[in-house]
Prior knowledge:
The chain is of the alpha+beta class. The protein has 2 domains: 112 residues, no CATH class; 94 residues, Roll (Chitinase A, domain 3). The protein is built from 9 helices and 6 strands; from the N terminus they run H-E-E-H-H-H-H-E-H-H-E-H-E-E-H. Helix 1 runs antiparallel to helix 2 and helix 5 crosses helix 9. The longest helix is centred in the middle third of the chain and has 24 residues.
Amino acid sequence: MKTLRLVTLATASLLLAACQAKTDAAGAAADDPSSKPVATVAGKAITQGMFDTYVKSATGRAVADLEPELKQRALDSLISMHVLSAQAEKDGLDKQADMAARLQLDRMNMLQQALAEKYLKDKTPTEQELRAEYDTQVAQLSRNEYRARHILVPTEIAATQILERLRKGEKFETLAKDSLDASRDRGGDLGWFSPSSMVKPFAEAVVALKKGETIAKPVQTQFGWHIIRVDDIREVQPPPFEQVKEQLNQAVLAKKLRTYSDELAKAAKVEKKL
């Protein structure tokens, strides 16, 4: 069964307000199809433009592409939303601090998305930019993956005691059964991983070890204290350029937008109060 994906009341209200403002600003020209009403609620028109925007947001499709039944359900839903949001305004809910803040944030989010689309419309990354981004990311990648085991305990004293037991010949896999981490069921084995996938203190400790080595001192992270042993190391090759081209495209666009945002913030003379 085909269903209609509804947007939230706050977001829909903003969509309706935006459409209404656009219609008002245009003078509701009689020959403008978007200004023609598809319904009225308490004498207030729901325009075709408002309906088009709602359907696009709720279903990702154009009104013309909807089946008649689904189109009517969408209109009924929009009318219901119109009635409810109007009553919410009558009750002063839009003036309450938390709701007013949420409406303002939703509005800002919609506007910033619209601005991002406008700014990036003619900023398609060139092949040279994509290659440069690829080289940058490859340079930051670790050329090695590691297979390691660890034992996680809550205190440094407990970790030091485990190290002493290891030095006396007890097996890592046996002691790992008391680890706080779920890897205890595998003898502490974490499988193969890249250092970038681990928190910084843990990754730095792993990279400093050779194959078969165990750390000399416990390592602390936000999870607790770790005893680490590297079981194996293998070299990995970065993915081919063509394979990650779409991700590179998104990364370049994100950088362009961030630069634009930083320029706007600088021009706005932002002053933080916290």
